[in-house]
Design brief:
By secondary structure, this protein is α+β, with helices and mostly antiparallel strands. It contains eight helices and eleven strands. The protein starts with 9 loop residues before the first strand and ends with a helix.
Amino acid sequence: ATPQLPDAGSASFGDITINNSPSDTLIGNAVPTQREPLAPVSSDSVVFAVMADGSEKEILTPQILTDAETKVDIDMKEYSDIKSIAVRNRNTGVSLAMSSVSAYDPKAASGYEPNNAVTTAGDAVIRYEGITIKRSTNDIDDVIPSVTLHVHAKTDKTAVISVKPDTESSKQALITFVGKYNEALAEINILSQNKPELVDELTYLSDDDRKKETEKLGIFLSDFSLTNVKSSLQAIESGKYAASDSAKITMLSQAGVSTSASGSYSGYSESRLRGYLEIDEKKLDSALANNLDDIKNMFGYDSDGDLIVDSGIAYRLDKELTAYVQTGGIIAAKTSSLDSQIKTSESKIAKLETQMDQKEQELRQKYASMEGSLNSLETQQSTISNFSKQNGNQ
């Protein structure tokens, strides 16, 4: 039986009455509908900066769903009017928790500032020739040309700076130059000559290095490139370089650097004829103390007034060696030529091997044919011999 419902009621206004429709209690056969399963949600957009005007800016956290713990750094320069941080996790089956929040000043030491600082760090401030100069470092190298000022503490009165040439560093640089020059010359001698004494003279070599150098003796004996390089190097180091008419030192030998600078041996010594440089230390010290500019100019100076170094030992060495080591230079050209020769030789070898294999097959076939013919002749001979014996017995 259908349920008994109360009257639906009506509404009247003046002479007009409107009756409500009665409720329909009859339920038809409902058709069940199958809902599609919800797709899982995965998004790393979970942290947002809430700004003072109510807008939000996403704070990128690309690893938040893959890492067990993600550190989020917020640069306040990018979020100057931030009011709060919102975390909205819409991901399926993922829970997020914020552990701790800390703020620090990147300009302070390790991000923190002491409550009661003894001193406060600041820019270095100096006054040079009436001009106040402020720098962020205590090492100032852009005030006095070629001079670096190391500022340590405040002075009570005007500081007097005395600038003197660093002759010791110049001396060490010259010693290093001579050492590298001699090493290069020794290597050239070893590669271009087949003389074991060339290796024996190099007392600074270890046993392993001595063995390696011995194996390289004379491998470029027939190549004149190394001989030409050696001659050029010797001509450069023994040349005269006068940056001005008043220069007192224009050659290395005048500064105590030459092939016979030590002067300790007056007899014949074949090793001293190989071109190695020696140093007269007393003479070098005197030259550095009294003529440092001449020695500097001897390695590189401008000869035509265009403010570009175009002469000197270092300039000529660089120009000479660059022709050999640059891309497409002498060494690269020789290497390419040798590679071509090797490929040509390998091609000839392969061709000759093929010809030898073919010749071997031809000879084998001829010998096999000859052996077959010989066997046939032997068989015929045996047949004739047997036939003759039979006739003789009759």
